[in-house]
Amino acid sequence: MKVRKKILYYILSAIAVALTCSFGPLFDDGDGMVSVIGAIVTCSKDRLSEYTIFRAFNSGMTGTIDMLLPVCCAVPSASYIYDEIKSGMFPYIHMRLGRYRYIYSAYAYSAISGAATVMAGLIMYIIFLSFFFPFGA
Fold this sequence. Notes:
Radius of gyration: 19 Å
Helix content: over 70%
């Protein structure tokens, strides 16, 4: 398996989590809801200073993140399992480990890699927010 290809999937999934969070609604300007990224692009620094990083983070956790987060978590795991089956080693690994040990190990790998992907994306999102929003209450 190509390790570089797998790392690329993890990085792209983490970036997708951070970008998905940045499209959450931050405030209503009268014409409609303005997303976090829209507020950063269109609003002045004085207007952005009205909102704390905590409020911007919470607004990123609403909206489309609920629908796209499972997809972002599943992409690296799905590519790993696909390459494992495609390589032809799947029957040998399955026979050597047994059905349940293989399933449990694949489940553990998927859970850990999904959690790592989400945490990396959220950390990138927090770092991105810290450049534009104040920490104070």
